[in-house]
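Please fill in the sequence for the structure shown.

STRUCTURE ENCODING:
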């Protein structure tokens, strides 16, 4: 099996996903494995990746703030059901994203 660098959060299809920190949307797109995915570049050489999305709520080049709606949970790509696959890379290395998953209220 391939190394799994992120975490998977089971949720219903269509559950909103909010940015855990401020940043610039680097890319929104589709690939066979991750399905619909988006990347956000944040401070300290940190890149957030959200995958298996049902739809985007932001576009490449848009600045987002902590708490902004960015996408919705789906099951696109190679997956067995709806969930969010979330990874964090800092300085090119994967780190545990769990500390970024704090409740955000609007």
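FILLED IN BY: designer on duty
SEQUENCE:
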């Amino acid at each position: 099996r391939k190394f799994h660098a992120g975490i998977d959060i089971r949720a219903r299809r269509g559950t909103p996903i909010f940015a855990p920190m401020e940043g610039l949307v680097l890319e929104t797109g589709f690939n066979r494995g991750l399905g619909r995915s988006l990347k956000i570049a944040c401070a300290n050489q940190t890149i957030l990746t959200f995958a298996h999305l049902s739809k985007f709520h932001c576009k490449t080049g848009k600045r987002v703030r902590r708490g902004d709606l960015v996408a919705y949970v789906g099951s696109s790509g190679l997956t067995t059901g709806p969930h969010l696959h979330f990874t964090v890379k800092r300085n090119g290395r994967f780190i545990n994203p769990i500390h970024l998953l704090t409740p955000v209220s609007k």
